[in-house]
Amino acid sequence: MSSLVVQLYGYNRQAIATLGSDGVANAWSQQLSFAGSHDMEGDVDESSTILLYIQDYPTYSAMETDLSNLRQETYGRRRTLSSVMGVRPARHSVPHRTVVHTVPGDLLYNASLFVVRGAVPDGVKALGSVGVPAEADLVTQRLTLEEVLLTCHASAWLRPAAPQPKAWRGYCHSPPTSATVWATRTVTKDGRVIPLLWTCHKMKHAKGTLPKFACHVLEKTLVSLSPEYEYLLQ
Q1: What is the DSSP string of 113-156?
Q2: How far is the C-alpha of 35 from the C-alpha of 78, rounded, in Å?
Q3: How many Cβ atoms from other residues are within 10 Å of residue 221's Cβ?
Q4: pTM reported for the whole predicted model
Q5: Tens-place pLDDT, residues 1-44
Q6: Cα–chain-centroid distance for residue 59?
Q7: Residue 129 region by backbone torsions, left for phi larger than 0, else alpha for psi between -120 and 50, else beta
Q8: What is the edge-to-edge ordering of all strands in the sheet holding 180-188?
Q9: Rounded CA gap, 77 and 72, in Å?
């Protein structure tokens, strides 16, 4: 288990210790209820970081089922919130806009794309590392934790109809509360525009010093973008 994964589980234990199991479940439910909101919240210090949802999967199909259920649950909780609290649903609160985004084409099967590679998202460098010459990042846009709800990782991503290795391991988690999430749109030398989602983890740093981040591309992600940013993944 990598140090970053250990850190993620530590954030989840901190959430349970701080809020209790029911409090964590309620906080996660509330975050799903406001999926698609682009209202930025204040930055959270690494020492106060919590993580509301993390789940291991023994099979790829189990991961896919959980993602599908959470996608539907996101919409259901928005409807429940509006009916119980008398809140009018937001304009973006429709089910088809909560989607599972996967990096395009064969890029999913190249593990080198997803390594931690610096303090800021850089689509040109990321694509260049897997043999895709790129010219420029056309857009680098920060998103909210209510727009990038869940990200999934696996020991190996499986091509359609490929058998699952016995040692396969997958897990999905919500972004840590001190993380930032981003989208880039990068133009390649052959004229394609490739969208990528990123998370940048705030790392431990000495008090009084500027925080440091470690950024990496996200493989498979449950997203609910606000309408003005839906173009980012097209």
Answers
A1: GGS---SS--HHHHHHTTT--EEEEEEEEEE-TTTEEEEEEESS
A2: 8
A3: 23
A4: 0.86
A5: 577 788 889 999 999 999 999 999 999 988 888 888 888 777 78
A6: 20
A7: alpha
A8: 134-143, 180-188, 193-203, 212-217
A9: 9
